[in-house]
Design brief:
single chain; 292 residues; mainly beta; Ubiquitin-like (UB roll); Jelly Rolls; 23 strands; 4% helix
Length: 292
Amino acid sequence: MDGTVKTPYGLGKHLDDSGGIIRVKYTWGCGYLQQNQVDTRHTFVVTCFACTPSKFELDVPLNISLDALRELIIEKIGKPIYKCNVDILQPTVGMKCVLIERPDCIFTTLRPLLVCVRTPFEFDKMAMSLHVETIPFMEPLQSTMEQFTVPSIIQITRGNSTAFGSVNLKCGRVYWEIEVDYIGHGDVHIGIGSQDMPLNVNVASTGLFWGYTLSTGKKTHTMSEPFGPKCKNEDIVGVLYDAEFGTLSFYHNKTYLGIAFRNIYTQKLRPVFALTLSGQRLTLLPNRTLPN
């Protein structure tokens, strides 16, 4: 019996035992307990948001890693979910605390767990010249789960073609990522825009688009200005929209580039993906979690 243990007096760290008496270290000092008063496992009540089942019990060892805890929760939910999109919280007095990986134990209390799942979105309304394929996602999730797939969009004719993401950007902070499969010699624009924007025009000319032009490294609205690096094939571009503050920020290969636009409060905003050249291809990645 090593590591974190559960006792009638809360969580503690097992130090040693002698003659059936176990010495446990607490934040307030040491205690001496009988063996039947000490356990290395606990059954947590779990409430899950944005997924079913919405409530269940989960028996776990108290020295479990956060990654392993996510896997157990995904297995219990029974659906292919990207592990990084699972946030686990434990309510504390006056606040909710997100569990983080610790050297000894991720748990500080035995209170119930709250699980928030950020589900990946899809490509939604799009120009006729765009085609969507579903491809396997190569990063392993969990051996017991079915193959995880992601949508990939490809332009099959020349001209300006726009696709929208399926999420409405009404509130909170929303983050998503794309991988540049093939950019070629044409412009590729990634950002946000009004869902009323036409699908077959240059998004930079509409006044309804705010974004990052990957081929030039410029930020684009009604005009273009230098902003970040030019992107190439296999680069990953992250987009963060904060509806409360109206800010739009970008990441390049997990590196934060900064805020590109402020005070964007237009109604009916959605993620926008705009291609201009036949053969250009983007893949919408499942990660919805901000890079560290």
